[in-house]
Design goal:
1109 residues; alpha/beta; Calcium-transporting ATPase, cytoplasmic transduction domain A; Calcium-transporting ATPase, transmembrane domain; 5 domains; ten-stranded mixed sheet; nine-stranded mixed sheet; 41 helices; 48% helix; 15% strand; elongated
């Protein structure tokens, strides 16, 4: 065992080293805005200490200049702490989500002895046992067993159950099929090679039915699951908002430095002039202090230009949003992905388990001949063909009626209800068990049987186990691909015998001569039957065809009573078994049920909301093309102008054609993980912000490649969760709409704050510049402590207030922004410029003319202090009311919309006003203010309140002229980036290549086996063509890690075609892809309602459809 572990490894994945809290803090400090703030804090602190303790001060002037530097440092600490602690908590929450609640054991045979071992102790060479409901822990080759079928949807995306045969049986079937093809003188086509049988056991798949054994050939990091998990461990990229904010930080640093340099130059010129003229007279020490004061005011200007509250606004908005999203079942693993979703323009979604429930369910059916039931009838009226049958042709099926599936008990007689339940419960091998992951009771077995048992349970019929145990079974008729049915004969309490049969509806209905009668009023006690005549036969045929056209799998359920056993004249196939053909004739038809994997609740509304929000939805699935199209139509994904295409056709499109097709592509069927990745890369290359949803291991590459990856918290595999950015804890596609909504809320919060903050900073910079140049003492109208209150404290409050507006559905009423869209919109620029000009004018007027306006003529110190306090008060109240104005980013006038839902905003605004009142009344010397009278308070409030009607007036200015003006004065780099087309292939860019190659090889091996087409794995080719290193150790057993690929090459090297004559999940062996001429011939379809002159027809060389195929 030790040798095996050393050579092949343990069945464990090395734990991903999580980032410590200190490391997360260090990474947060690398943000460009925070670096700018840190420099400003150090300079401000140093100069503050010099001013307070290095220069002489008046006795009534407190040393408070150092406070601003400390306050900036506190702001940085808050930002770094909030962001890093949030990330750390999310990482811990994710780890908890993935931890196993209990250690799992696996049955293996070692040395001929069956034993239970811990899942982590399984080694290569063990013979492991398969049982229904088990999640396969490692890769292997099937050895032997009975009727083993696996659900590999989580691993490969294949929704159909995969039958497992031994290697020898696979070779035998291959040879037989090749012999048949040689006789026919034709090679098998691509569709003929789509079988659902192989000998590979894939880690992460689930055993649906049967028992068997397999030899383990790969564990841990060498297994299918493990290799993909390891390949996906990469670091996240910067989000579009982060990139724009970094650009803004650089721009502010440049503009602030330029303004500081200009101010320093202007003041130095005046200083030199004063030195030359000797006015005013200064000592050498005073000259030195004057020079330092010039330097301080210049640096202060640069500090004022930096938006100290910006990183805090971003962090608070994200922290608030992620906390609320967690309450709405959205676990955000990567904080930045929240705001990235705001601009998502395309969502590529998996079908199985994401749009659908990954649980086969009866969605429609016909009991007897006339009762047509539909699951959730009001939402799915098109699934009933009653109206079609009553109005088509000469025949009138007037007795047909439709009803909701939930109303069946109202029309069934007690005897018919019991008969139907007996037919489901007795003629089944499925059973109910508790799911290890969710601890919920689930049905285990073939998807068809579990669908029927769930149908009976939902209707409240008698427990299947009690019914099954109450009957004496006389003969079992197992499912056979020849008869396409399975049955059971039981002895009834009254001494008769009854045969229950279920299987392919088109075959079993031909063996029925009567049908049960269901009355719409539910009358009758006993089971009533009626002959199947020509009219009824037509009705049945049309019903089966109608369901098949909706890609439903139809199962017929029949019974027959016998007065004696064995029946008179019956033939025997064994001592106690009667020939099936002698039993299955003159039967009574109970009903026909249509089964499919139904849509999740709320999916239709979610897709509609995505489209309304300007987010395109594309479905990528490994399922056949008609099933994919049907689900896409039900969801509302497949619309006019859309294209349905198969993966093999898509991946062979020329690059130029692919770029033109992808925007119109709505359904990609029979797609491999590589197809999905190519689609995502192409969309990214076209400038789209792409979100990808998935729950399976095969979705890993696309989840990681996309800007935002969504995985399912319940049904999602560990690989999918590891690759994703956001986990949908309730597995609900509609939660994605909430993610878009909250993402836009975060982006809007940042923009609202920017609109407010930049207005404040522009005003502060201009006022500081002008008043400092105009002052003889090189002093600004606003003192350092006043600037601290305006720039740090108020901005922090505003960040908190504007970042806490809750998300609302109104956010979905607009299209997403492109990645190249400006951070500042025209509406924002109008507000910033308009509010800044207004604030600058009123502050400068009251600074220079305040004494005259207020009627002060004595120019005493008291009067000067009142004017100074009034200017400070006006500035503060202008900011308070501008923060209310900044709640709206568009041209609509109602800035108070939803304000009552944001208690944070109202509370913080009141706190700001209260603190300002306190500062004026008791701030005194610290803030260089004095108490003012009612007249001055009235002026402050009135001039501040003007910001609101001014904002409304600015919103009335049309955008077009402003946009032309911006372009004319060459401000384009500031507000809009030129959109550049990609010059290189997206998938050729470095960063993920090696991991993707390995993943492509791994997934490609199994996906090509599934389709019967084998393209040699690149790592196998390399291993064959590579020369051995002379210095390398000769460890021959390690070559066995290539065994799965080598065996795959051997099996399918000669076009191996597994036989697929039907199974219980698909009893007729029906391939719906053959039923659509357009899709079968071309492997793609343009929506039938698309106008015939649409250029897409010319692009694809297709003919416009005259009717839906």
């Amino acid at each position: 065992m030790d040798v095996r572990k050393r050579v092949y490894g343990d069945n464990v994945l090395p734990g991903r080293k999580s980032k410590s809290l200190l490391l997360l803090m260090w990474l947060a400090l690398k943000d460009k805005v925070l670096i700018l703030l840190s420099v400003a804090a150090v300079v401000s602190l140093a100069l503050g200490f010099f001013q307070d303790f290095g220069t002489p001060r008046a006795s009534d002037d407190p040393p408070v200049d150092w406070v601003e530097g400390v306050a900036i440092i506190v702001a940085i600490v808050i930002v770094v702490s909030v962001g890093s602690v949030n990330d750390w908590q999310k990482e811990r929450q994710f780890k908890t989500l993935n931890e196993k609640k209990e250690e799992r054991t696996v049955k293996v045979i070692r040395g001929g002895v069956e034993m239970l071992v811990d899942v982590h102790e399984v080694v290569v060479g063990d013979v492991a046992l398969l049982e229904p409901g088990e999640i396969v822990p490692c890769d292997g080759i099937f050895l032997s067993g009975h009727n083993v079928r696996c659900d590999e949807a989580g691993a490969t995306g294949e929704s159909d159950a995969i039958k497992k045969l031994s290697y020898e049986e696979c070779i035998r079937i291959r040879d037989e099929r090749l012999l048949e093809d040689n006789v026919k003188k034709a090679r098998p086509s691509g569709m003929d090679l789509l079988g659902h049988t192989d000998c590979f056991i894939i880690s992460g798949s689930k055993v649906l039915e049967g028992v068997g054994s397999y030899v383990v050939i790969a564990v841990g990091t060498k297994s299918f699951n493990g290799r993909i998990m390891m390949a996906l461990r990469t670091d996240a990229e910067n989000t579009p908002l982060q990139l724009k904010l970094n650009d803004l930080a650089e721009l502010i640093a440049k503009v602030g430095s330029l303004a500081g340099l200009l101010l320093f130059s202007a003041l130095m010129i005046r200083f030199f002039v004063q030195l030359g003229t000797g006015e005013p007279a200064r000592t050498t020490n005073e000259k030195g202090i004057a020079f330092v004061q010039i330097l301080i005011i210049a640096v202060t200007l640069v500090v004022v230009a930096v938006p100290e509250g910006l990183p805090l606004a971003v962090t608070l908005a994200l922290a608030f949003a992620t906390k609320r999203m967690t309450q709405e079942n959205l676990l955000v693993r990567v904080l930045g992905s929240c705001e990235t979703m705001a601009n998502a323009s395309v969502i590529c979604t998996d079908k199985t388990g994401t749009l659908t429930q990954n649980e086969m369910t009866i969605v429609a059916g016909s009991v007897g001949v006339h009762a047509k039931f539909v699951r959730q009838f009001e939402d799915n009226k098109a699934r009933s063909n009653v109206d079609d049958l009553n109005t088509s042709g000469d025949r009138k099926h007037v007795q047909d009626f439709s009803l909701d599936q939930a109303q069946l008990n109202q029309v069934f007689s007690p005897a018919l209800k019991t008969l139907f339940n007996d037919a489901i419960a007795v003629n089944s091998t499925a059973f109910e068990d508790r799911d290890a992951a969710t601890s919920e009771l689930v049905f285990v077995g073939s998807k068809t049987e579990t669908a029927l048992l769930k149908f009976a349970k939902e209707l409240g019929w008698a427990d299947y186990k009690q019914v099954r145990d109450s009957f004496e079974i006389v003969q079992m008729i197992p499912f056979s691909s020849d008869r396409k049915a399975m049955g059971v004969v039981v002895k009834l309490p009254d001494g008769r015998w009854r045969l229950h049969v279920k299987g392919a509806s088109e075959i079993l209905t031909d063996r029925c001569s009567r049908h049960v009668v269901v009355e719409q009023d539910g009358s009758g006690e006993a089971i009533e039957t009626a002959p199947i005549g020509e009219l009824e036969r037509d009705n049945i045929s049309r019903t089966i065809t109608f369901y098949a056209s909706q890609t439903l799998r139809t199962i017929g359920i029949c019974y027959r009573d016998f007065e004696q056993w064995p029946p008179a004249g019956a033939r025997y196939v064994a001592n106690d078994e009667v020939e099936y053909d002698d039993l299955a004739q003159d039967m009574n038809l109970i009903g026909i049920v249509g089964i499919e994997d139904p849509l999740r609740e709320g999916v239709r509304e979610a897709v509609a909301n995505c489209i309304k929000a300007g987010v395109g939805v594309k479905m990528c699935t490994g399922d056949n093309v008609l099933t994919a199209r049907s689900i896409a139509q039900q969801c509302g994904i497949y619309t006019v102008g859309g294209i349905v295409m198969e993966g093999p056709v898509f991946r062979q499109l020329p690059p130029d054609t692919m770029k033109k097709v992808v925007p119109r592509l709505q359904v990609l069927a029979r797609s491999s993980p590589e197809d999905k990745r190519i689609l995502v890369e192409t969309l990214k290359g076209l400038g789209d912000v792409v979100g990808v949803t998935g729950d399976g291991t095969n979705d890993g590459p696309a989840l990681k490649t996309a800007h935002v990856g969504f995985s399912m918290g319940i049904a999602g595999t560990e690989v999918a969760k590891e690759a994703s950015d956001i986990i949908l804890m309730d597995d609900n596609f509609s939660s994605i709409v909430k993610a878009i909504m909250w993402g836009r809320c975060v982006n809007d919060a940042v923009r609202k704050f920017l609109q407010f903050q930049i207005s404040t900073n522009v005003t502060a910079v201009v006022v500081t510049f002008v008043t400092a140049v105009a002052s003889d003492q090189e002093e600004s109208v606003l003192s350092a402590v006043q600037l601290l209150w305006i720039n740090i404290i108020m901005d922090t409050f505003a960040a908190l207030a504007l970042a806490t507006d809750p998300a609302s559905p109104v956010l979905l009423d607009r299209k997403p922004d492109k990645k190249t869209a400006p951070l500042f919109t025209v509406d924002m620029i109008k507000q910033i410029v308009g509010q800044s000009i207004y604030q600058i004018i009123i502050i400068l007027i009251f600074h220079f003319l305040g004494s005259q306006i207020l009627g002060f003529h004595d120019h005493t110190t008291k009067e000067s202090d009142i004017v100074q306090t009034l200017v400070f008060n006006i500035f503060v109240f202008a900011q308070v009311f501008n923060s209310v104005n900044s709640r709206r980013l568009d041209n609509k006038l109602n800035i108070f919309e939803g304000i009552l839902n944001n208690y944070y905003f109202m509370s913080i605004t009141l706190i700001e006003i209260a603190v300002q009142v306190l500062i004026v009344f008791v701030g005194g010397a610290a803030f260089q203010v004095t108490r003012i009278g009612g007249r001055e308070w009235g002026i402050s409030l009135a001039l501040g309140l003007v910001s609101i009607p001014l904002g409304a007036l600015i919103r009335c200015i049309p955008n077009a002229p402003v946009e032309r003006l911006i372009s004319k004065i060459h401000l384009r780099p500031f507000w809009r980036k030129e959109e550049k087309l990609p010059t290189t292939r997206a998938d050729a860019e470095p960063g993920f290549g090696f991991a993707m190659d390995r993943m492509r090889d791994n997934l490609g091996t199994f996906s090509t086996v599934r389709g019967g087409r084998m393209r040699s794995s690149s790592f196998v080719v390399k291993s064959r063509s590579g020369r051995a290193d002379a210095d390398a150790p000769k460890v021959v057993p390690e070559l066995l890690t290539m065994f799965p690929s080598l065996m795959a090459s051997h099996i399918v090297g000669s076009n191996w075609t597994p036989q697929s004559n039907g199974s219980l999940s698909d009893p007729a062996g029906f391939d719906p892809s053959r039923s659509s001429a357009a899709l079968w011939e071309n492997k793609f379809e343009v929506h039938p309602d698309t106008p015939p002159n649409d250029p897409v027809f010319k692009l694809l060389g297709a003919r416009p459809s005259t009717s839906r195929p």
